[in-house]
Amino acid sequence: MENEKLSPSSVNHYRSIFNSTFNFAIKWKKYDDNPVRPVQQIEERDPRDRFVEVEELGKLIEQCQLAGDFELLGFIILAACTGLRKGAILPRKWTEVRVDDKYPFIHMPKRDSKNKRPARLPLPKLSVVALKQMPSYGKSEYVFPAKPNVKYKDAAKFTKPYAWDLGKRFKRICTKAGINDLRIHDLRHFATTMLFIEGVPDEIIRKLTGHRSEELQRYKHFSAPFLQETGERIAGKLEKHISTFSGTKPKKAAESKKATRKSSFQTPSLSGFTGGADGTRTRDLRRDRPAF
């Protein structure tokens, strides 16, 4: 597997599968020994620390609007707002994505949940608007229905109920937006990081994303926005008393408050979106798609 240039994490993943297979065979008395057990896992690379900037997310959404790809747009916004994995989003049916309820939510069955527990995740207004703009809304059973490609000459033999991957389309949009080294799973990182920045308690983040405590520590350590926000908060406290050490006259109360506001972290709004603080509408969505 290493000779095939697979990543260390992929090699270890397949080793675990083989190891479990032989363990089950031994348990069922189909085999006597596990030949995989002596094989050690190889050292993996440093964890990926690529996080999506708000400006980058805005560019992706803008390119989806220009391309008229409202399906990919809905996927990107849903992943960024909920932190769900690709494998948890694509199999969803519209009966599980309740966009018309008083409090919209997406139901996650335990079979698709990372921690194997069912979950009910709230859907913000921005994601509700994007989902209602998707071609499958009100027309298909699945939110992301599968489409036969050129290798399926006989449409009757095509039985896939939902899309398995949006990777190629995602890469094309990233290229058009001038964004490099970005993966779909990084959208999940973005959601988790933003929850940290906004001061959401770890217990709530774990319920929303399905992460374990030790996994959340990785996000705190590698998230540049989180570290920047932490430093700015410390600096903001020091700025109130900096004149004491510099020998200058203390700032007036109004000036001090103004300086504190400037030093605090402010998340820029997504480019291309208008319609108030909640971001419930977009200029292009209103123009290109029928209102509801």
Describe the largest sheet.
Answer: 3 strands, antiparallel
N- and C-termini, Cα separation: 52 Å
CATH class of the largest domain: Mainly Alpha
Order of helices and strands: HHHHEEEHHHHHHHHEEH
Mean pLDDT: 76
Question: Would you count the extended β strands for me?
Answer: 5
Helix content: 40-55%
Task: Output the CATH homologous superfamily of the largest domain.
Answer: Intergrase catalytic core
- CATH architecture classification name of the largest domain: Orthogonal Bundle
How many individual helices? 13
Low-confidence stretches: 259-292
What form results from the Cα inertia axes?
globular
Output the strand order for the largest sheet. 1-2-3
Indicate the CATH topology of the largest domain. Answer: hpI Integrase, Chain A
Strand content: under 5%
Counting structural domains, the number is 2
* Rg estimate, integer Å: 24 Å
What does this structure look like?
With 292 residues, the chain is mainly alpha-helical. It has two domains: 1-45, no CATH class; 54-222 and 270-288, hpI Integrase, Chain A. Helix content is 47%, strand content 5%. The chain is built from 13 helices and five strands. The strands form two sheets. It has a three-stranded antiparallel sheet with strand order 1-2-3, with no helix packed on it. The N and C termini lie far apart (52 Å).
